[in-house]
Amino acid sequence: MDKYKIVYTDGESSDERDLLSLLDNWCCTDGLGGCKYFRNKEEITLKEFTEDFYKAIDKQAGKKKDDKIMASSGDYAKVASSGDSAQVASSGDSAQVASSGDSAKVASSGDSAQVASSGDYTKVASSGYYAQVASSGYYAKVASSGYYAKVASSGDYAKVASSGYYAKVASSGDYAKHDIKGKDSVCFDCGIGGVVKGVKGTFIALCEWYYENKKWQIRATVTAQIDGKKLKENTYYGLYDGKITEIDFSDDIKTAVIETKGKVKKVKFINKDTNTITNETSYIVSDGNGNFAHGKTIKDAKKSLLYKISNRDTSQYKDLTLDSKLTFSEAIKMYRVITGACESGTKFFIEQNKLKDRKYTVREMIELTKGQYGNETLQKFFDKGAIE
Questions:
Q1: Which contacts (CB < 8 Å, 24+ apart) does range 246-253 have?
Q2: Can you give the residue range of the structural domain that contains 176?
Q3: Residue 71 located in a structural domain
Q4: Where among 230, 246, 262 does a domain terminate?
Q5: Alpha-carbon distance 118 to 136, whole Å?
Q6: Residue 77 pLDDT
Q7: Is residue 238 part of a domain?
């Protein structure tokens, strides 16, 4: 069986595995056109990768009773799916593709395609020119690599990536993350807590919301252009206190960057309930190889970093099942040992989510940490995949 791998634009890469298994863990936070694709260790084009995708889902058609798998390669095709976990693909020009099921995977490579998805946890990809892509589901991952694309997302916690030139991206969902890699693109986020990063020349517009008197209110809107100096390339920015602010997501913890010196960042935590920068200062230390750790002091952060990158004995947890119960302290220790999560980040997660001091099953731990640092590592350790 052929093995595939994707290398993203930031240098990170997926595991090498069969195509459908790879797509089960597909991350499209990088635009499709900016990635490199490999089949059996040999680099292939996006077109070849897409064609293999169609062949794979055709081969799987009829083998899954609960999942709906649809493929279309004709021009002007109209494809619609309403089932959960559907896999929908279209390669024809001017195609119209729609999906309303949760956890659906929707792909289109034709020019002038119109792609719409309303399901939660949906993954949507489009590589055709002039494509119009819309997503309204929560936690959606949307990617577009075609030139002149128009991408819209209204779901909360969406991740939107665009690598095509002259793209227009808009989001009204809360806590969206935008990654713009195409030249001369425009990105507007008018939702609560949205952030944008882009290449030099990208125009960004941000809206700041704050919670007061039991309602959300707009404080300010600001537009700017990433110039590579005052606003750096490939760096997330949000709007706080009326100012465009650098945002860090190390360990999937959102913080506002106050100062950067070498491999050390001084940051302040952001309260997501009010979308405000707190007075709680922390430090993030990097080893330069993709590992990060938080700490109240630089010394504490360095200790956590050593803990994260050192060998950790996970054998003590190999006999646990999804229904195994652990005390509060045991659950915290298990999560840190298996995932390498830092102490400060773990504490912040517990406080933000108001977790109570009680017993938790492994299943609950996986559910509670969905979308957080280490969740996929925890799932893989117990070899249970997505928890139903």
A1: 247/195, 248/284, 249/177, 250/284, 250/286, 250/292, 250/293, 250/294, 250/345, 251/292, 251/293, 251/294, 251/341, 251/342, 251/345, 251/373, 252/371, 252/372, 252/373, 253/294, 253/345, 253/348, 253/349, 253/373
A2: 65-246
A3: yes
A4: 246
A5: 5
A6: 63
A7: yes
Residue 44 tokens read as 């292939």
User: Can you read off the two tokens belonging to residue 82?
Assistant: 């309403």
Number of domains in the chain: 2
Q: Cβ–Cβ contacts within 10 Å for residue 155, how many?
A: 25
Strand 325-326 to strand 243-248: parallel, antiparallel, or no bridges (unpaired)? Answer: unpaired
Q: Which of 310, 305, 306, 311 is nearest to 292 (CA)?
A: 305
Say if residue 324 is in the same domain as residue 180.
no
pLDDT tens-place string over residues 320-376: 999 999 998 888 888 888 887 877 778 778 887 888 889 999 999 999 988 787 888
User: What is the Cα 192 distance to its own chain's centre?
Assistant: 17
Q: For residue 198, is pLDDT > 50? A: yes
Kindly report the pTM of this predicted structure.
0.66
The span from the CA of 299 to the CA of 305, in Å, is: 10
